[in-house]
Amino acid sequence: MEKCEMFCYQCQETARGTGCTKVGVCGKKPELSGMLDLLVYVTKGLSCVTTKIREEGKEVSKDVNHLVTVNLFTTITNANFDRDAIIARIKETLAVKEELRKQLASTDALPAAALWNGDESEFDAKADSDEVGVLATENEDIRSLREMITYGLKGLAAYSKHANALLYDNEEIDAFLQSALAKLLDDSLTADDLVALTLETGKFGVDGMALLDQANSGTYGNPEITTVDIGVRNNPGILISGHDLKDLEQLLEQTKDAGVDVYTHSEMLAGQYYPAFKKYPHFAGNYGNAWWKQKEEFESFNGAILMTTNCIVPPADSYKDRLWTTGAAGYPGCKHIEGEYGEVKDFSAIIEQAKKCAPPKEIETGSIVGGFAHEQVFALADKVVDAVKSGAIRKFVVMAGCDGRMKSRDYYTKFAQKLPKDVVILTAGCAKYKYNKLDLGDIGGIPRVLDAGQCNDSYSLALIALKLKEVFGLDDINDLPLAFNIAWYEQKAVIVLLALLYLGVKNIHLGPTLPGFLSPNVAKVLVDNFGIAGIGTVEDDLKLFFGEE
User: pTM score, two decimals?
Assistant: First the structure.
């Protein structure tokens, strides 16, 4: 393959479905892409050292584990566009790695990534070298498997980071994540070895989502059925987007007497479902839709906006001064709010800015209902089971995942609209914005759209499926009246997919396109062994799933 200015194919919208080579569809430039690639490279190098340390019977500190998870989270699509911030993380990673190397009894078996320790003047040349980046692996199939695992690990790191922010840690997950990163540098591993590592990544994906579920519900209570207002109030507001519930909690606490309302956006909608947040009268509704509409919606919101994680679209100058970042998120020219695990972040500056802003412009009215995480659905289990046994509910369809800009994603709106009236949608993630305002009605009081929450709450959907399998006395999860028609966009969706494969779920339909990082041979493995398929037309897929003409 000829030399490109950059190469990235980690997201669904990658150029031509094969890879961004001049500038990212997400907006990242080659000079940023190179630093993100280098950050992954040095994080793999650090992980080789930490894995070796563990093999020698020594401990690795939580601070180092957290460094690895935040590094990977920082490289997720649309998370951080600030090259200077990435360079700072590379420097810190190299410094930590060098200190840890001194603990090793032997460094003989370490690969080049664990031994390299260049200074900043060498970063660009290193990032541009044949050793760094996706194309460093020449064999197409090995590259495909390595990248699928890498993207799964990025998703796992994101979920671990959210749990860590609530002071929940799992050393086994951290040790696996780092050992897997190290294995991605091992040229002795065969394609079969990497397929096995892919499924092992899925296993730890389940564990990672379980850890975050425990952290969220243990801290804020189990999500409950909630009606969320999608209109606006008359006070100035702060719009909080992303996924980090700890940031939401601290923002609500610091704004409770400020005369400023707090609204959720996109995936943060799930924050509305937790009992702990309902005590705040200034916690207003949800504003807007999925992440990709933010340019017009951030404009009309008028107030300050806090991005807690990924899903940043390069902002327009008209609201860039109102866009703040925190955690792994970052954008050059936008103010960043610092704060480590366990620390109280200081949101006073964004609150003061918000006070001076006009109230949000109303862009829609009404309400939406959500909060159908596993405990809430278990509470309805008898009702659900009776509806299935009576034939009132014929089938469930999981339509979880991510939304995106491509026009072809209208498929999911049309699919939901044309579903038979005895089919219930199980969803999580921002994919739901394609149909959660369609008023699809209910079946005997059970809403036809059961929203579990954020992308990580796909764990709830897996638990619900396993519970139904138990209730109906089935041996195989694939015998349930359950279909999977999932939309994907970025790497957190990849770990959800790998987790489902590990759980034995087959015949998942993935759209609007299959990942660009799947080589033909790797795609064939997924098709032959797991029944993975793309989407067709709405009419053809309805017939396939439900026998509808």
Answer: 0.97
pLDDT at position 3 = 74
Peptide bond into 512 cis (omega under 30): yes
Residue 466 CB neighbours (<10 A): 14
Q: Helix-strand-coil percent breakdown of the chain, rounded to 5?
A: 50, 10, 40
Backbone phi and psi for residue 442, each to the nearest 5 degrees, phi listed first:
-145, 170
pLDDT at 549 over 90: no
- Please check whether residue 201 is in contact with residue 180, taking contact to mean a CB–CB distance below 8 angstroms: yes
Angle between the 191-220 and 245-254 helix axes, to the nearest 10 degrees? 30
Which of the four pLDDT bands, split at 50, 70 and 90, describes residue 2? low
Rounded CA separation 158/11 (Å)? 15
CA atoms within 13 A on the CB side of 155: 34
The two three-digit tokens of residue 245, written as one number:
């519930």
Give the integer Cα–Cα distance in Å for 111 and 529: 33
Segment 146-167 shows an average pLDDT of 98
DSSP 147-188: HHHHHHHHHHHHHHHHHHHTT---HHHHHHHHHHHHHTT-TT
Q: Strand 442-443 to strand 446-447: parallel, antiparallel, or no bridges (unpaired)?
A: antiparallel
**Contact yes or no for 423/167 (Cβ under 8 A):** no
Determine the Cα–Cα distance for residues 451 and 466; give it in Å rounded to an integer.
17
Task: Give the residue from 93, 15, 147, 80 showing the smallest Cα distance to 513.
Answer: 15
* Region at 93 (left for phi over 0; alpha for psi -120 to 50; beta for the rest): alpha
Structural element, H or E, at residue 304:
strand 304-307
Strand partners, 424: 396
| pLDDT tens column, 520-535 | 999 999 999 999 999 9
